């Protein structure tokens, strides 16, 4: 997938270096998370930045971490993390989500991140579209995302870790219900490729 010079590639062993470069340019993302928050917790992992990095790399090497990377040449400039619920069980407001759940989706999109230098030019939308294309190539199914409902007050980009309701609506998702104070549950069916 290519748009405006950007190319979407799947996260894998061959793209780990590009992904790691993006995370390192942003101090590990959210204080060293390395986009591991949504994965199952690992009691034996080392703590902090290095522990999160090693855990994420191990998941990638095992094929149990998925993301659409937006590439600008050899550099990753954005990603959208996705996977089945057993791969990404930890979501914000989980207790409320479970209490109100009407089904278990085939896939979740849990995190979208864009390099500071590439924000406001469509990279988040491209990452989301890339994740949907990769999901289609894996057989498709019911996909959920948990974007923010943005009000009149502007929110910091660092708090909008999974995009906005408007962006998901433009990608064909339908609103299901609120989750927490400003999150939503959005859903769409992705046909197999």
Could you explain how this protein is built, in words?
This protein is 27% helix and 26% strand. By secondary structure, it is α+β, with helices and mostly antiparallel strands. The protein has an eight-stranded mixed beta sheet with strand order 1-2-3-4-5-6-8-7, sandwiched between helices.
Keywords:
27% helix; 193 residues; alpha+beta; 8-stranded mixed β-sheet; 5 helices; globular
Short description:
With 193 residues, the chain is α+β, with helices and mostly antiparallel strands.
Spatial separation of the terminal alpha carbons: 13 Å
> Structural class, from secondary structure content?
alpha+beta
Major β-sheet profile = 8 strands, mixed
The poorly predicted ranges are: none
Number of discrete helical segments: 5
| Total strand segments | 8
User: What's the rounded overall pLDDT mean?
Assistant: 90
Summarize the helix and strand pattern as letters: EEHHEEHEHEHEE
What is Rg? 16 Å
Portion in beta strands: 25-35%
Q: Which percent range fits the helix content?
A: 25-40%
Question: What order do the strands of the largest sheet run in, or round the barrel if closed?
Answer: 1-2-3-4-5-6-8-7
- How would you describe the shape? globular
